[in-house]
Amino acid sequence: MHTVVMTKGVPDFREGQVSFDEEGHLERGKTPTVMNPNDKHALRAAFQTKVRNGGHVSLMSMGPPGYKEVLQEGMRDVYADDLYLLSDREMGAADTWATAMTVATGLQKLADQPDLVFAGFKTADGETGHTGPQTCWCLDWPIITHVLSLDIDEDAGTVRAKRLVDGDISEIETVEAPMPCFIVADPEFEPTYRRASHRLKHKDLREETQERAEEYEESLTVWDHEDLNLDPDYIGLDGSPTIVSGVDPIPKAPSEREATMIEADDSEALEPVLDELTPYAAGD
């Protein structure tokens, strides 16, 4: 069983204002980057498959050299057996379509073809949710989206999943698809390990991946567009039909905020503060 998880670096908004060039493209080299939070749900789903069914988990991303640290984050915080980075200048400033074509080619280049490819619901920056489904379209595979839970039947070569209908938490359906298959994990996905043996294996694998993450470059493969035999005219900015019409600036939190200092034993000063905060504590 070989599973691959697609991931992307997104701006770490906790670090303040991100940087854009004059044409509205995000300058990722000048912006603090972290692993897209929704991709960690996808990686946890793949890790659950590893624990329950065995096999191999690969983590793949397309982006600048700094994305090595994004891959390391995924390996350290969740799990990965190995890492793949698709990276060079020709791939830069790609929209979701050009990214999907590149990632699909990277998946096809893997020596051990994947049984399942996992993707996050959407990214924290673009929020389109396009790249996973578009990559799946390039491969002509079945896809199951908004997945809440899943089980693998290796003998039958199928995956059975519970998913939200149209993203509605009030309506859930169970579907089945043949492998290879694309899985888009919903943010509501929660891994489950009911067997004691699975919980023990989960613990052991977490320790292994954290050790491996310390020397992550030993598990990292980097491919450029020549390695993937991709025409530069069809990838990166040149291969992107999307036109950025404008970008709204991201407001930066004020460095100083007003605060009222109250001593713990000053009950008279505390009373109006408690009166103001009590409704929030009650959920109003």
UniProtKB/TrEMBL annotation:
Annotated ranges, domain Electron transfer flavoprotein alpha/beta-subunit N-terminal: 23-209
Transmembrane parts of this sequence: none
Protein name in the entry: Electron transfer flavoprotein subunit beta
Pfam family, one: ETF
Keyword GTP-binding: no
Protein source organism: Haloarcula mannanilytica
Coiled-coil annotated residue ranges, if any: 199-226
GO molecular function: electron transfer activity
Keywords assigned by UniProt, alphabetized: Coiled coil
InterPro entries (UniProt xref): ETF_a/b_N, ETF_b, Rossmann-like_a/b/a_fold
